[in-house]
Specification:
The protein is of the alpha/beta class. The chain is built from 11 helices and 7 strands. It binds S-adenosyl-L-homocysteine.
Length: 239
């Protein structure tokens, strides 16, 4: 089995990423914490450091290969154990990172991660996206929002776009059926003030297929969205 250091080298080379020794150490320490957390609670599916690196780390960092994140505030919606938010923050230390998740256990794990990695300007927002999206402090405040493996695109855009600043970006990490999901979400994207900009199709080192969608927030999200907790999933917009 490959050592975590070697897997990480493979991933950073594959993505053309130039990061410092201390950033590499932070990434490896994060993987270590994920593995340790795994023994006590199921945080992610994979069981070896190499698998975590080649699947979750590669996927999380993929946008850095072909896109420039806007400076300012980055929100990871439904971050779970911190993916993709924590790896992105390690590689983009100047962004202010906000992590939203409804699961208390995961938020507690993230509190530990942020402390152990000594991450600056990293804020935890426990609770549902539907609630944060209606909070005037956070609504339409984020330069960029990322989200991976949280909900179908048609549901996710109603949760995510209200939080994105006008002119800001929404990056949705999707699997191989991403294009079908986007087709289904077409009305929801328009209703929430977004516009599909472009997408990238790629493969993880594990061979899995992925699609990454960039949606621009071009106009305000109407007051009606997001609807109350659970509604976006029960009755997806435009379906
Ligand atoms: N993004 C992570 C976790 C995916 S699991 C990864 O790629 O590994 C989905 C996570 O989204 C769970 O932790 C769940 O608690 C959270 N989630 C789902 N719906 C949510 C909502 N409406 N508001 C906040 N968090 C939500």
């Amino acid at each position: 089995m490959e050592k975590p250091e070697e897997s990480l080298e493979k991933v950073t080379d594959g993505l053309g990423l130039e990061i410092s020794k201390s950033q590499k150490e932070q990434l490896l320490w994060y993987i270590h914490l994920l593995l340790e957390g795994l023994n006590r609670q199921r945080l992610v599916g994979e069981k070896s450091g190499a698998a975590l690196i080649e699947k979750h780390l590669y996927d999380s960092l993929y946008p850095l290969k072909m896109w420039s994140f806007p400076p300012g505030c980055l929100l990871d919606l439904g971050t779970g154990a911190g993916l993709p938010g924590i790896p992105l923050k390690i590689c983009l230390p100047k962004v202010k990172l906000y992590l939203v998740d409804a699961n208390r256990r995961k938020i507690n794990f993230l509190r530990r991660v942020a402390a152990e990695l000594a991450l600056s300007e990293t804020y935890l927002l426990p609770g549902r996206a539907e609630k944060w999206g209606r909070d005037p402090i956070y609504r339409e405040k984020f330069n960029c929002l990322v989200s991976r493996a949280v909900a179908r695109a048609v549901i996710l855009v109603e949760l995510a776009l209200p939080l994105v600043k006008i002119g800001g970006d929404l990056l949705m990490y999707k699997g191989k059926n991403g294009l079908n999901e986007i087709e289904e979400a077409r009305t929801a994207i328009r209703l929430c003030g977004g516009q599909m900009e472009k997408y990238w199709h790629y493969y993880l080192p594990t061979g899995e297929e992925r699609t990454l969608f960039l949606i621009k927030k071009t106009g305000p999200t109407p007051e009606a969205y997001p609807r109350r907790i659970g509604k976006p999933a029960q009755k997806p917009l435009g379906l």
